[in-house]
Amino acid sequence: xxxxxxxxxxxxxxxxxxxxxxxxxxxxxxxxxxxxxxxxxxxxxxxxxxxxxxxxxxxxxxxxxxxxxxxxxxxxxxxxxxxxxxxxxxxxxxxxxxxxxxxxxxxxxxxxxxxxxxxxxxxxxxxxxxxxxxxxxxxxxxxxxxxxxxxxxxxxxxxxxxxxxxxxxxxxxxxxxxxxxxxxxxxxxxxxxxxxxxxxxxxxxxxxxxxxxxxxxxxxxxxxxxxxxxxxxxxxxxxxxxxxxxxxxxxxxxxxxxxxxxxxxxxxxxxxxxxxxxxxxxxxxxxxxxxxxxxxxxxxxxxxxxxxxxxxxxxxxxxxxxxxxxxxxxxxxxxxxxxxxxxxxxxxxxxxxxxxxxxxxxxxxxxxxxxxxxxxxxxxxxxxxxxxxxxxxxxxxxxxxxxxxxxxxxxxxxxxxxxxxxxxxxxxxxxxxxxxxxxxxxxxxxxxxxxxxxxxxxxxxxxxxxxxxxxxxxxxxxxxxxxxxxxxxxxxxxxxxxxxxxxxxxxxxxxxxxxxxxxxxxxxxxxxxxxxxxxxxxxxxxxxxxxxxxxxxxxxxxxxxxxxxxxxxxxxxxxxxxxxxxxxxxxxxxxxxxxxxxxxxxxxxxxxxxxxxxxxxxxxxxxxxxxxxxxxxxxxxxxxxxxxxxxxxxxxxxxxxxxxxxxxxxxxxxxxxxxxx
Length: 677
Prior knowledge:
about 675 residues; alpha+beta; nucleotide-binding
């Protein structure tokens, strides 16, 4: 259990991780819960809908879930007191279908709607000036300038055509950022370093913006190279009061989408934190904002900061702010929506400890740091057995990850009195997280939080391409870690053999061959009790463990060091897939005789796939730009695949032999799209 800050007035239900840590004991209300709403309709899906429902239920508020037809059995639907289907799978026909949602409000008698991350009182149902102004990046920038908030140089109007985009970009000076005026979450954003990239960026950004937000307007501004992305959490009421709840460091990103966040930032000093906080509050007051919101800044190496955008909603990364302040931001939003004044003054807001959030996605991190993956979670186990761990998720074992929605599995949050403690807890949590049935990004997350640059705080929004210039390759084994993995595989193989063979007598010595990547290693193994001693190349490695082969987790002590491995698969031929230090490794363990006989087997010649263009991910075909017989120049676009509202252009440079897809079709990962000569 952890200390709850004194300003936290929440009732913590057993097992509910409101302040970012696992809290096992019930805490009584320090004051009576306020009278707010009887029923709230939550017009969201997934983990954020579940997160809101937890606080609503704690406050005694009935909840209504809306869902698409494919989400009928989703977790947020099961959690709600009532549920209403609002349409088919595409978000434009369901979760963004305002008419259907309004019908659901009227049918259920909900008094407030939680939509776009905010609470809107239905009796006065409208988007306030703040929501409209800050939801538009062009207008928000003009308002920020008027409120004396630092802004990025750029064009303050709507960019209407490709030609205009090129002219404006040339006037500003490359590089530039092209982004959707109504955008967020990294969608509808492209960096352009020249005229050609501006033309391409304009096209993709406008298409993604229209698909995601129903608004294809774009703006262009100067791209600040190698900055940090740091945001300020604000909280304001309807009585003119506003607070800043410290910062969140969000610089670890891929495709302008956050991957790992922490609070506070290692970079800010007290003076810069206060200056950013005060400007964030100035902006909130300038638009008469009343709720929880986030003002995002880019910060350069000299601690100069520039307004990026204001999100008038509850951010994905809000749990880490809850960790270090003790506030339940959802409760505060509900109180404000009802008309209550803020309970706290600026001097009451603490920074207690450190919190880190890892976004766990159904993505393949080996493809552009994360292309979407789909599938069914055949096995799913969150690491809630560990202390100071919080998991916000909207899925469970058996849930489907589809092409229609964001591929986020969960937000994994750890807390500690110091950053080192929070990082150590995150490392353990990632090792103990069991996810089967979909490709996930655990390996990338673990490599990030254990990298020396991240540990030292030397980060920027360019962290991933700088650290992995040739793309992410997983954990790179050194001599010691390689021996650990080989020894663990050998010990696991023998344990399985002994269990399956029911051998009579005492077997205590084995000669094995362990294959890993391109290497073949001869090992001698002895067993005493439950401890294996594995010798290879003159070095001995001791492996001790519980050896519960039915469990997905393998807690081992290797030469006295605790390691949590996962056995992802194994078969009778000796092939084993182990998750070790976050990365999956394919290993094969053979007896000495089997290895000798195997050397006589002919090797399978790999298929020549150089003439085949396959889909790198599941998704929908947006456009096909070629036909059989066309000659394709280097870098020329062949087709565009869209998944989770992100568009990816596929290119090649050969004669087209045949085309196997057409616009509108759904394709799976690895499906053949185009065959080349």
